[in-house]
Batch of 2 targets.
Target 1
Amino acid sequence: MEESKIYSFGNPDFSYIVKINGGEVSLNEEKGFVVIDRLWEKGDYIELSFPMDIKVIRADERVAEDRGKVSLQRGPIVYNFEDIDNDTFNVGSVILDTNSPMVSKWEEGLLGGVMVIRAKGWKKTTAGLKPIDITAIPNYARLNRGGRSVVWVAETENSAEFEDEWVSGNSFSTYSIGKNKDRVMINYTIIPYSISDGIVGITGSDIAPSNWNHFPISVRIQPNGLMDARNYDTFSSSNAVYYQANKAYKISIVADVNQKTYSVWVTDDLGTTTLLADNFRFRNDAPEINDLGKVCVRGGSGVSAGLFTVRGFTVTSDKVRISNVSVNDGVLSFKALCHKEGVYDIYFVGYDSSGRVIKVIKNTLSMNEGEEKEFFAQLGLCGGYKIFVWHNNTLTPAASPKDI
């Protein structure tokens, strides 16, 4: 069976059995059909047996929203994950252990009777990963009990949201999000409960903030109903973005710790995305940082706590920093500095002038944190080149592959 290019099965097995008069026959497939060519007699009968194994599905990596995530399918039925079944109020924090056994079980008393899938995994919190039992229900039975529901669930820690719901305070206390270096992608949802004043500020992992200027990156809601962001020595916006009370707004940030710049996009509840900050510079009087590692959610000066909430915080950063890239006589070379110990798949890709891939070289290796290696690849003369680095089924750099 030919797989779709939109997604693929992590454990492909499309076996099925065809029997005629109780005896198994060899299969002749043509365009999705089984062709049986024989002289039929009265009383002949066909038995067709389809297994209902649990399949792990992965989307094409070009589908950015589903990178590092999987879905489950049993036979023809796609499954769904809901808050209520998975020991969380934010199902986006659930990480499925695809290496653990998965079993299906009929639950007579659930949703009128459904076949559920049981598995193991974790939920992601600022205190670390917590093991949980995971339950998936058929997609047709979703959203009958309130809460949030998803088809695509995280397979990697980077793809999961923090479970924590961060309510705005009136101090500079912070939440730790790790040590995220080089290029970093951040996503979260902000829900203002009134037209008020406050910031979501981001700073380095070794900073103990005690003032507003301790945050190189700040996204702000204002009492005039507008959002803005800090750009070097002032707050401003590239485009006007209004907000309303009790509406959810998705904030997407791409930051470059080395260049000390960041951009911000805001998506409203209708799905309209607006560029709020276009290549803004880090705050001029903020301390020097080497990573992004702490988040502060607080109201403005003199503003009471609890006026807005941040949910679904995710952060993805480069695991390998690419530098000193050059191409000479068809030989691609560069240096890679490792920020996280692990096994990496590095792809060197050559394109022709129309963008068609004409050559691919893959190099798999283990790297230690802080280790720098130099790479060479004989790709020949091409119209363009790209470097893709993969770690734990996730593409890094966080924002895009490296173009040369």
Target 2
Amino acid sequence: MTIGLTLKLLRVSSNLTQSSLAKDLDITANYLSLIENGRKEPSLTFLKRFSQRLDAPLGYFLWLCLEENRSQEELALKSNMNDLLVNIIREKTKTDHLPNDDNEEKK
């Protein structure tokens, strides 16, 4: 779950609109929407205000940020590993189909 979605779920479960929460946090509703939809990363100041306003532990949001970054890094690493394996297989396939000099000399 992304941090934006978590923030949205907490807001909705507290029966708050984007407009009312944005006003409480001294930000625009548009900015809150961008955060909830994952188009903007929340600042530490924002997370602190949010956690105080909704009585949620700040540490949880920090942990979510770390998890999101780790997940993105893991996806990038898996993609790089996949590319390397594909290249190794292609190279191996090319060398397997090359004529073997030893076999040609024996003929």
